[in-house]
Amino acid sequence: MTGASNQLRTGLGRAFGGALVFSLPMLMTMEMWDLGFAMERWKALLLLAASLPMLMFLSHYSGFERTWDWREDARDVAIAYGVGLLTSAFVLGLLGIVGAGMSLSEIAGKVGLQSIPGALGALLGRSQFGKDAKDSQREQTFFGELGIMMIGALFLALNVAPTEEMVLISYRMTSIHTLALIPATLLIMHVFVYATEFSSGTELTPDTPWWSAFLRFTLVGYAVSLLVALYLLWTFGHLDGVSAGNGLRVVVVLSFPAAIGAAAARLIL
User: What pLDDT score does 41 carry?
Assistant: First the structure.
């Protein structure tokens, strides 16, 4: 019992550390504060619902402890959301972003929206602060690796998706810039994919042809990143009233960090 209690305390400590480290950039981003107040509530709830299956997957793959069924994963996700809520409320209150004089709806919106990256960081905390050798050699399937890439894309893109800089960059880019960014992103992704050929727990081996790795992981991972970028930009209202051409440029811009996050996640998790 004592060992289990120590393991739980260690897991919670890593969870709070992960929630703070991984969500702090968003906790100190003005656009995230504004979105917590002005964002349509149904979009916020949809984002929360969409994050649940990814958090369940992450919990099963690298949660607070080794899990064996969906009930344990659901428990870990609930704990992660609790940690995310507490961390967000503490930091936003400490910085004066939420406090007395604000409506309950505004406080709930700001804290609730920030709890999503907080929960993701809580689960990622174990991967970064306490993964043991046995966990690091866990076998991974193709669809499992796609899940990891989606989580990586979501995490990195979520750091910048709420900001106006994504739209500003897209307006500064010409069609040539846009067309050049796509192969550049694919090239950077494939460097990360190639690096995982020599790591354990992956379907890729040093004998895998480059074109097979490119088609199965780099190209598919980029498609996943595009979908994540499209969804986040729509959620945060950056595509409202935007022409198809301009909207495509914004998606390509955001898919750049999303794709790097997707590829890097295969090395980190």
Answer: 86
